[in-house]
């Protein structure tokens, strides 16, 4: 999207970006905001939004990119070093801080890119800087060079330390010698890199040394004793050698960074973008800004959009253009907020195309807009001999030379600055030309002919800024659908214009013009009454919906508790029956002869009744479980789906009863419908020659019988069967091992516990075979 400098100044874009930049946490983020430009096309804008969305998802999932508050912009210093060839220690240290952070961010992005693929952008922008960081490790935390920066520097500093120790030894001996009485204080000082002592003023001519400086009080002077001259000369020579060696090392490090200047600048850009995302996250969560939805058409729609420069004083407005009409003409009194409404919309479009959130509500959207052109404000120019009307014409002519169907044109006070009839006629002609081109237009005007044109012309919509006739003050709300009154006479009377003059002005008004103003006023009053009623109805509906939801939740909770109580009672009763049956069997074993036979007959009679009771209980439990289970989603051929408890996504290509064939990448698998969840986005399709079909193995039953087998024979058979059943798409299967002594049951359970594709296993209930059956569920 393009915007010329004139429109940029009219919309105060730089002021808005400066305001936003003040809230960024670092110099990098502030610089990125000030320099940000709109995306070149919709593809680039989508990429910006996707990258921000990935960042937000990463942080919301608990991820956290590393940061260093000490990081600063280094690109300017590198640009300067292209001419000087030298970066000093503190500047090199800033580069090291930036590259260290960049490498940490790259590492974090690489770890997260599998789950958040868009974050690979940081990996691509940040190159490898291990070698550079290794060489920059010779810097101390204050930017000075460590002794080991080079062998020569180490030798120079070692000798320098030795000469200083020797000089101090000589100096300390002098402090305690015969001349010590001439000293102001017995301290060895350093002046301009040379050792000296502070001598009383009275002994200047007698002290064996050279004056090098005067004390702050003027009562004494610093003098270099003759005994220290040789040592001081050697120290001065070593200091110069040290300076030259340090400068040589700084030069080499600078050349190394200049050779990779583009890579360093890209790393800086990546970190600036990261800091920008951090600030955008704050805007979204704490300032109620939103990322607008992107649409293909040339249009925009903003709900509760606000102008950032107005702060808390901003009145939110709803405004759209491009869906049902291509031009919106806003009318109303001066100082009513017409121009602010234009600027607010255009600014929101600009911020959205920069990939930034906008100060608007949920549901806002913006489409393909190639350029913004603006004719806003009165720019009279004595230097260029331009009147108000001429300056308007100059800008409009420029728009007509460049605007197309994807452009947004802002026309403030259309037709103003000249004869009202001619100005209105010219304004209508300009609007018609923009309509012919399908250009998006936001315009303001006071002219009634333009108001009538906006009200009656297809593709054009009228709007007004609300005005309180009781207080004669604007409310700044934007009302779309009706034109507004200028209210010039009412405002003049409020500001003290004599009533006689106001009355005479009304008499001078053309009757048609006066009738139009009155009609507009009546329409506005009716519109406000309808909107008030709509708000009251919406509030009442919201209240009723909340009450209905509350009642539904209460009813659902009551039914849930009732079902839990019933299920608990049924399970307890089954447990009682199972215990009683087990005790009865144990008692029968202890009986002998005829008593045992009679006991078996009675046991069989009672078991028949108990089984009926169990069956009835199982039916009740199943009914409750079915009622508590949420209804399965409606799926059809072509529905995009995801396999439950897995990351596999595909598309249904056939449905057969309770099973479905799903195309998942290169595989076609048969899966129970109950194991599928619908998704919003279809998976990427593959060409026919890339598709492999995997069908259910023939003859795989829903259960396997191993009762009576030896363990060595049964367990390998069960393992093979479970593998086949899982691949066949079964949700659960039954392994029939019998009751017996429980040996096979334990071995089957141990097998299920170590198989990775088994999610859970349990003994069957009465209707499934009880203890003699294990029910196995797959992931």
Low-confidence region ranges: 379-386, 684-698
Given helix and strand content, the structural type is alpha/beta
Radius of gyration: 43 Å
Please give the order of strands in the largest beta sheet: 1-11-12-13-9-14-15
Shape: flat
Q: What is the count of distinct domains?
A: 6
Q: Tally of extended strands?
A: 25
Largest sheet: 7 strands, mixed
Q: Predict the CATH topology of the largest domain.
A: Rossmann fold
Measure the end-to-end span: 50 Å
Give a description of the structure.
This protein is α/β, with parallel strands linked by helices and about 775 residues long. It folds into 6 domains: about 1-130 and about 260-285, Orthogonal Bundle (MutS, DNA mismatch repair protein, Chain A, domain 3); about 150-255, MutS, DNA mismatch repair protein, Chain A, domain 3, CATH 1.10.1420; about 295-510, P-loop containing nucleotide triphosphate hydrolases (Rossmann fold); about 560-630; about 640-695; about 705-779, Ribosomal Protein S8, Chain: A, domain 1. It is built from 21 helices and 25 strands. The strands form 5 sheets. Strands 1-11-12-13-9-14-15 form a 7-stranded mixed sheet, with helices on both faces. The protein has a 6-stranded mixed sheet with strand order 20-16-17-18-19-21, with no helix packed on it. Strand 4 and strand 5 form a beta hairpin. Helix 2 (about 15-20) runs antiparallel to helix 3 (about 25-35) and helix 3 crosses helix 11. The longest helix has about 80 residues, at about 510-590. The radius of gyration is 43 Å and the shape is flat. It starts with a strand and ends with a strand.
């Amino acid at each position: 999207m393009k915007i010329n400098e004139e429109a940029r100044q009219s919309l105060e874009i730089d002021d808005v970006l400066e305001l936003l930049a003040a809230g960024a946490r670092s110099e990098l983020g502030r610089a990125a905001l000030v320099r940000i430009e709109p995306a070149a096309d919709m593809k680039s804008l989508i990429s910006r939004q996707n990258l921000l969305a990935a960042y937000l998802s990463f942080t919301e999932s608990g991820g956290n990119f590393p940061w260093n508050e000490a990081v600063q912009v280094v690109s300017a210093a590198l640009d300067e070093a292209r001419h000087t060839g030298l970066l000093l220690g503190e500047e090199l240290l800033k580069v090291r801080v930036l590259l260290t952070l960049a490498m940490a961010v790259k590492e974090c992005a690489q770890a997260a890119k599998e789950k958040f693929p868009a974050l690979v952008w940081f990996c691509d922008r940040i190159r490898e800087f291990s070698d550079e960081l290794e060489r920059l490790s010779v810097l101390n935390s204050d930017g000075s060079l460590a002794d080991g920066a080079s062998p020569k520097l180490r030798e120079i500093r070692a000798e320098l330390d030795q000469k200083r120790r020797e000089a101090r030894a000589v100096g300390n001996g002098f402090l305690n010698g015969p001349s010590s009485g001439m000293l102001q204080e017995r301290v060895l000082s350093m002046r301009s890199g040379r050792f000296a002592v502070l001598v009383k003023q009275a002994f200047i001519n007698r002290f064996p040394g050279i004056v090098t400086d005067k004390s702050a009080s003027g009562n004494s002077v610093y003098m270099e004793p003759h005994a220290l001259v040789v040592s001081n000369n050697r120290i001065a020579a070593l200091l110069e050698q040290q300076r030259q060696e340090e400068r040589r090392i700084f030069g080499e490090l600078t050349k190394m960074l200049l050779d990779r200047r583009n890579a360093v600048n890209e790393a800086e850009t990546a970190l600036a973008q990261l800091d920008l995302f951090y600030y955008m996250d704050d805007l979204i969560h704490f300032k109620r800004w939103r990322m607008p939805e992107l649409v293909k058409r040339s249009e925009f729609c903003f709900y509760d959009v606000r102008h950032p420069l107005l702060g808390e004083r901003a009145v939110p407005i709803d405004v759209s253009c491009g869906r049902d009409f291509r031009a919106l003409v806003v009318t109303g009194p001066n100082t009513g907020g017409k121009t602010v409404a234009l600027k607010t919309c255009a600014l929101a479009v600009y911020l959205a195309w920069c990939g930034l959130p906008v100060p608007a509500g949920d549901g806002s959207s913006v489409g393909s807009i190639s350029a913004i052109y603006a004719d806003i404000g009165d720019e009279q120019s004595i230097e260029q001999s331009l009147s108000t009307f001429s300056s308007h014409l100059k800008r409009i002519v420029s728009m007509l030379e460049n605007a197309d169907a994807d452009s947004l044109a802002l026309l403030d006070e259309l037709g103003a600055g000249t004869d009202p009839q001619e100005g209105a006629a010219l304004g209508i002609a300009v609007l018609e030309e923009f309509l012919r081109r399908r250009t998006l237009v936001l315009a303001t005007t006071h002219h009634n002919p333009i108001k009538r044109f906006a009200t009656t012309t297809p593709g054009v919509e009228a709007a007004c800024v609300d005005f309180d006739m009781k207080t004669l003050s604007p409310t700044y709300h934007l009302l779309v659908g009706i034109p507004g009154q200028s209210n010039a006479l009412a405002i003049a009377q409020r500001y003290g214009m004599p009533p006689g003059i106001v009355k005479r002005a009304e008499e001078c008004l053309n009757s048609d013009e006066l009738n139009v103003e009155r009609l507009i006023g009546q329409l506005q009053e009716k519109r406000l009454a309808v909107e008030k009623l709509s708000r009251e109805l919406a509030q009442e509906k919201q209240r009723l919906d909340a009450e209905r939801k509350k009642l539904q939740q209460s009813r659902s909770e009551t039914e849930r508790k009732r079902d839990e109580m019933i299920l608990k009672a049924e399970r307890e009763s089954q447990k009682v029956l199972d215990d009683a049956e087990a005790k009865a069997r144990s008692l029968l074993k202890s009986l002998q002869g005829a008593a045992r036979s009679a006991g078996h007959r009675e046991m069989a009679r009672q078991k028949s009744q108990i089984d009926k009771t169990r069956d009835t209980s199982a039916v009740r439990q199943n009914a409750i479980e079915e009622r508590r289970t949420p209804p399965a989603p409606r799926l059809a051929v072509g529905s995009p789906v995801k396999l439950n408890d897995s990351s596999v996504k595909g598309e249904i290509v056939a449905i057969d009863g309770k099973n479905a064939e799903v195309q998942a990448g290169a595989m076609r698998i048969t899966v129970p419908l109950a194991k599928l969840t619908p998704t919003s986005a279809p998976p990427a399709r593959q060409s026919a020659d890339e598709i492999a079909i995997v069908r259910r193995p023939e003859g795989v039953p829903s259960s396997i019988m191993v009762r009576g087998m030896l363990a060595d024979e049964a367990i390998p058979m069960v393992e093979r069967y479970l593998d086949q059943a899982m691949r066949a798409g079964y949700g659960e299967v039954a392994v029939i091992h019998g009751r017996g002594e429980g040996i096979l049951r334990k071995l089957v359970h141990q097998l299920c516990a170590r198989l990775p594709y088994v999610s859970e296993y349990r003994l069957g209930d009465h209707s499934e075979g009880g203890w003699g059956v294990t029910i196995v569920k797959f992931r």
